Amino acid sequence: MSCKIKAICRKFTLVASFVLVCLIGKSQYNFTGVGKILLENQKSLGNNFVALVYKDGKIIYQKETEEFKARTRAPLGNCSKWLTAALVMTFVDEGKISLDDRVGMYLPIFETYGRSDITIRQCLSHQTGIADNEKGVVKLMEMQRLKFETLEDEVNSFAKKEVAAKPGVVFNYGNMGLNIAGRVLEAVSKKKFDVLAKQRIFTPLNMRSSSFTPEERSINPSTGAFSTAVDYMNFLTMMLDKGVFMGKRILSEAAVKEMETIQTKDIPKKYIPKAAIGYEYGLGEWIEASDSNGNSTVVSCSGLPGTIAFVDKCRNYACVIFIKDPDDELKKDVYTELKKEIDKQIAASCN
């Protein structure tokens, strides 16, 4: 056999080996079970949804319906909180604020009404002590929000509300704390919250279809973001990669770790959404599971009803299920079943 023929054979062998590796890579996951669960629960998912799973630099699973695609823009609901907490941490990274600063240092009205002991950390972890999520309060707050022209007006009204508990004593999931933190950023930077979010989060993460720009009312850092499944996945991959996105650092590793540290251990939980019962809370995100050393392994910010988003650090993947018009609050057992099915295909690397 001539040298030329031998060279061609070697080249063919290399190409064939490469194709085989690619085929193995594509076939190593079998998400048939995930698709089946999504189909069976399509009604509760509002019939229109997108599901993305990301691992090792690429999307390894994608499912979208005919009328709702991965680049379709929709409200994020409670998943906005994760973005807001990350935005706050960019200011912490720069030393412009500290998590344990009192809100009154930046918003004097809180001093005026005797709320001087509330910290930014407590705002991000729903421990302000201000009455929130009481019976009928959420619906009333949404109606009242229509009359506020600015985030400043709304947050000033919070300072005047009744105190239900001392700050840091009770966890009470709601919308006031994150909005107060968002207003602090406005006071520190002299810029509007939506501008800050674009400059510090959306633009660096290539989230071109995302914004906090309101359509009918004042800016809402807790539930007012709009995004797409593709955009939000960029945020999740940054969190998965300890603050780095496409080689560029967005948050310090210490900031990400702080967000993923339990803030609610050993304190009473006055109100938790049904889908999050049994979880702890960090800063703007739920902590679903931790390892034997107490380090969080699964973190999420499921905006139920609506978007479901989580990062599994043990299996090194991120998932977002973007829901256009959910029929009702997605049942926790459906979410648990979905995650278990994904986990079957991806081995864990920690205990």
Looking across the biggest beta sheet, what order are the strands in? 2-1-13-12-11-10-9
Q: Architecture, according to CATH?
A: 3-Layer(aba) Sandwich
Largest sheet: 7 strands, antiparallel
CATH class call: Alpha Beta
User: Quick one: overall form?
Assistant: globular
What structural category characterises the helix and strand content?
alpha+beta
- Give the amount of beta strand, in percent: 5-15%
Poorly predicted regions: 1-26, 135-141
Q: Tally the helices: what do you get? A: 12
Average pLDDT for all residues: 86
Query: What is the distance, rounded to the nearest whole angstrom, between the alpha carbons of the first and last residues?
Result: 55 Å
Radius of gyration, whole Å:
22 Å
N-to-C order of helices and strands: HHEEEHHHHHEHHEHEEHEEEEEEH
Q: Roughly how much helix do the residues carry, as a percent range?
A: 25-40%
Q: Tell me how many strands there are.
A: 13
Question: What is the CATH T-level topology?
Answer: Beta-lactamase
Please give a handful of descriptors for the protein shown.
Beta-lactamase, 13 strands, 351 residues, seven-stranded antiparallel beta sheet, alpha+beta, two-stranded antiparallel ribbon, disordered N terminus, globular, 12 helices
